[in-house]
Amino acid sequence: MSQPRFRMVQREALWSEAADQIRSLIEQGVLPPGTRLPGERELSRQLGISRLSLREAIRSLQYAGYLQVIPGRGTFVRDTREWGASSLEQWLRQHDDLMNKIFEFRELFEPGVAALAAERATPAQLVALQRTIQAMREAAAAGDLDAAIAADAEFHYQLVALTHNDLIIRFLAQLLRSVGDERRASLNIPGQVERAIAGHEAIYEAIAQRDPERASALMRQHLRDARRYIHAWLQGALDPVTGHLRDWANGQTDKGGER
């Protein structure tokens, strides 16, 4: 297979622009699993960035689960599509503490981001945000988990942009790029993609209605429900087919899903 030509990065924040370009090529299938990226010297030349910036880009994509760096061999696109139930459970149990910390940290800032988005989003940005939900819905209908994961990530990326605060965008965009395997593991749980879509739709409606308090509350619930369903799945409390909670004794319901 012929190697794709990378275009020269034009904007500032070079390493993040380079990371976005490589991630996009992976998600589009231009760089399929197992592909070895060009060497550091050649890739930095094609992208028009320094080796230091390239290393930052590679590191962020490695943390996000897109790339695997094998010493002495090179950098390869990871095949993250095969998450069997046993491997998923093993990964979640091994990274339970990390997952809790990530959700706890996200709860500190994403509700605030949603509130700012409700106050500042432009009509064009609302249309773009709604498109991510439609893309996720179509991916779910087609059984394309990779596309659903990409659309889920894009929804949260765009929310950050809707704040119109350069400091928030610069800091949080970098942080959200580090959420890769965690997002994939969560959305592999039965029913979780559908719950995420329902959550996104509710958050979008609050933002479109210019209701910052409701947007913030819904985002917080969205994140807490995601964590709750992960724990329920590990405890065997989810139906493996429907993804619904098996134990209704506590009076809680998962109708409406992750919101």
Write up what this structure looks like.
The chain is mostly helical and 259 residues long. The protein is built from eleven helices and two strands. The protein has helices at residues 14-27, 40-47, 51-63, 85-94, 96-120, 123-142, 145-161, 166-177, 181-188, 192-208, 212-234, and strands at residues 67-70, 74-77. A two-stranded antiparallel ribbon has the order 1-2. Strand 1 (67-70) and strand 2 (74-77) form a beta hairpin. The chain is globular, with a radius of gyration of 19 Å. The model is unreliable at 248-253 and 255-259 (pLDDT under 50).
The CATH architecture classification of the largest domain is Up-down Bundle
Which secondary-structure class do the elements indicate?
A: mainly alpha
- Whole-number count of domains: 2
Overall geometry comes to globular
Give the strand line-up of the largest sheet: 1-2
Share of helix among residues?
A: 55-70%
Compute the CA-based radius of gyration: 19 Å
Number of helices: 11
H/E element string?
Answer: HHHEEHHHHHHHH
Strand content: under 5%
Assembly classification: single chain
Low-confidence stretches: 248-253, 255-259
Mean pLDDT: 83
Q: State the end-to-end CA separation.
A: 42 Å
CATH class group of the largest domain? Mainly Alpha
